[in-house]
Amino acid sequence: MRSLFLQYYRDTFIYNLVFSIIVGFAGNFYICFATFGSLVSFLAYQYHKGHEYYFYYNYGYTKNELMTKTILVNAIFAFILFSFAQCTKLMFKA
Description:
Blueprint: H1 2-24, H2 29-34, H3 36-49, H4 53-58, H5 63-91
Helix pairs in contact: 1-3
């Protein structure tokens, strides 16, 4: 069951990462990745692979559950990346 969620997360992660990198040049990558990028990735996934939600539903995952878990994982991942970037800045500050 866990591997099914990881498959969904991987598919939405690609859309989110590409969008967040593009927007990250003009704004904050971490905030975009954790919030707005997730929403854009859900829309892109719905457009390209929306029929696969039936597959996940047959295995017990609802669309809301998949989206909620994905947003939570993205927020945790963005926080870890942000913390790592800040610690690296402090370590190598001259």
